[in-house]
Design a protein that fits this description.
With 590 residues, the protein is α+β, with helices and mostly antiparallel strands. The chain folds into 2 domains: 203 residues, Beta-galactosidase, Chain A, domain 5, CATH 2.70.98.10; 368 residues, Glycosyltransferase. Helix content is 33%, strand content 20%. It has 15 helices and 30 strands. It has an 8-stranded antiparallel sheet. The longest helix has 20 residues.
Length: 590
């Protein structure tokens, strides 16, 4: 029996959309034709009316689940004393030529008998448009079609070599030969067959194996790094280069509370961190795709940078509640859209210029969009110069009064520091004469106002006695040395105040919804990283191993972990968590 980790799901995808598949084979979340479309199955956020797509057997079967190694193909195996079969789930993705991929808005399920004659049911219950009305499903000659025609019009097509009547009426049947199920957003011109599905399975498998070969092989934590890298790749939207924060909406940070957000958007901060890590693993195309996304977002020099965008580059992400849905484990509300897009967070400028510097430094010979990037850098410096002294909402997106957050000031320093380095790299060094004093002014301001001798640490915000995990990143961004006594004292103070049973609070002070009750997973990775940097390597490794044991059965992490039960909470899978896992694992490899 698979241990209950709260979110016992695997993710499949093709850089256009994704689906979450429960340990028992049930597809409980899928949006088509792309990540931010309305859901066609959403049982994960409403057990009763959400809809799912499951292969059902009697209770005598033991079910196990794993990925085919180095791929995004999920295998769920069913067996009892007499019978055995497997379900292979994937979203088609393979190369057509050097520049183009075949990744249609569809998912495929292959069911293969392995032993005996298993008896199974296909429970197919699509609920289009987030189940906000009646979806009607009909049998046609070549497919089963599901239609929604209330507030809007949507359709979904299921192709299969199973008798359609057995699916529509949930009739049990004997599995004597392999069968396929192709779920497509579009009606297929070329009707699928078992042979075609097998061919696409093999081509998809080949794609992922080749993708994984590009990365280095690590002596420690190689499997964990590979799975995290594949997961990050699955959260990229190839059409525009956007990177999603997570594949879901409204999985709560705490059961029964209202910290429920839609994460199917591109946060500049998260995405920039992701592409740096993925590029370090040898996947360079993702960097250029994201740079294209940024360049296209900012066509004018006076364009204000938002903290987040829609994956197609949308700038207005109006938030609304889907009141007809009960929420994950009855945790309302379910939200689509995200009101945080209007927030001011000064840290995004530093993170963006940091990734531009990374791109220019890594691809020195290519001059890839240098002119546009240089214009963006100069505009960012102008914005930082005008705004760095102002308060903002901070990395954690507090929705109440703005404050002078230390992390935001740190990233303003990063923006100017990386702008100077970019200027030197592309032979525009004359700009640095004016920028160096600004960089020094910001640094001195942080050292004077963020350091709190009372708590012997850099505090969450100027004049505050509160600690915050985000200040641990001061060292990794090059602001302070790991051996600096003030940094070491900060790590120790955060350990004493924010560490609880191996997991870290991001902060303990009340925010808009009271004191946090779950651990933001990335913060624990940051803490372990900091321990390693200050020389406590044995302790860091022990805590890293302990944290990795909190992943689900497939090695996946969500946004949060419950302090007491260690069950996963928050949107899933979370890009932030997996990029931090990779970064931390790299420390333990020479």
């Amino acid at each position: 029996m698979i241990e209950d980790k709260g979110l016992n799901y695997g993710i499949i995808g093709n850089c256009k959309s994704s689906a979450l598949i429960n340990e028992d084979s049930s597809i409980d979340w899928c949006c088509l034709p792309q990540f931010d479309s309305s859901a066609v199955f959403c049982k994960i956020i409403d057990e009763k009316i959400g809809g799912s797509f499951k292969i059902e057997v009697d209770k005598s079967y033991v079910i196990t689940q794993h990925y085919i190694n180095n791929t995004a193909i999920l295998k769920t195996k069913f067996r009892n004393n007499e019978n055995e079969f497997e379900v292979l789930d994937f979203m088609t993705r393979f190369k057509l030529d050097d520049q183009n991929f075949y990744n249609p808005p569809e998912l495929q399920r292959m069911i293969r008998p392995l032993k005996g004659i298993p008896k199974i049911k296909v429970l197919y219950n699509p609920t289009l448009e987030y189940a906000n009305g009646k979806t009607k499903t009909y049998e046609k000659e070549d497919f089963i079609v599901s239609v929604f025609e209330e507030a809007s019009y949507e359709t979904l097509f299921l192709y299969t070599d199973i008798e359609k009547n057995k699916i529509l009426k949930n009739i049990e049947f004997e599995l004597t030969t392999p069968v396929y199920l192709n779920l497509s957003y579009n009606e297929k011109i070329d009707v699928p067959t078992l042979k075609k599905s097998n061919l696409e399975l093999e081509k998809t498998k080949e794609y992922w194996l080749n993708w994984c070969k590009k990365g280095p092989k690590y002596s420690l934590y190689n499997d964990e790094v590979k799975r995290s890298a594949i997961t990050l790749k699955l959260l990229t939207f190839e059409k525009t280069g956007a990177v999603l924060a997570a594949a879901t909406t409204s999985i709560p940070e705490t059961i029964g509370e209202v910290r429920n957000w839609d994460y199917r958007f591109c946060w500049i901060r998260d995405a920039s961190m992701v592409i740096k890590i993925i590029a370090k693993l040898g996947h360079e195309r993702i960097v250029k795709n994201f740079i294209d996304f940024i360049v296209n977002l900012i066509p004018n020099k006076n364009e204000k940078l938002q903290i987040m965008y829609g994956i197609d580059g949308q700038k207005i992400l109006t938030e609304k509640k889907l009141d007809h849905l009960s929420g994950y484990k009855n945790s309302k509300p379910v939200r689509v859209g995200n009101a945080a897009y209007v927030q001011k967070q000064n840290d995004i400028y530093g993170i963006l210029v940091d990734v531009i510097h990374f791109q220019i430094e890594k691809f020195k010979e290519e001059n890839y969009k240098y002119e546009q990037l240089w214009s963006i850098v100069k505009s960012v410096v102008w914005v930082v110069e005008k705004n760095w002294k102002k308060p903002d909402k901070g990395i954690w997106e507090f929705r109440n009064e703005d404050q002078h957050f230390t992390f935001s000031k740190l990233l303003c320093w990063v923006a100017i520091d990386r702008a100077i380095k970019i200027s030197n790299l592309i032979k525009k060094g004359r700009k640095t004469d004016r920028w160096i004093p600004l960089r020094d002014e910001i640094k001195n301001d942080i050292l004077s106002n963020a350091w709190n001798p009372k708590i012997k640490a850099f505090s969450q915000s100027y004049g505050s006695d509160f600690l915050d995990a985000s200040v641990l990143l001061m060292e990794s961004y090059g602001f302070i040395e790991s051996k600096d006594p003030k940094y070491i004292d900060t790590v120790k103070a955060i350990e004493k105040e924010l560490l609880y049973d191996g997991l870290l609070f991001r902060y303990k002070n009340n925010d808009d919804f009271g004191e946090p009750k779950s651990s933001f997973t990335v913060c624990t990775f940051w803490y372990i990283n900091s321990l390693f940097k200050i020389g406590e390597e044995t302790k860091a490794k022990r805590l890293f191993d302990q944290l990795l044991s909190n992943s689900n059965h497939l090695g996946l992490f969500s946004e949060d972990l419950d302090f007491k039960t260690k069950k996963m909470l928050g949107n899933f899978p979370q890009a932030y968590s997996h990029l931090a896992l990779i970064e931390t694992a790299m420390n333990f490899n020479p």
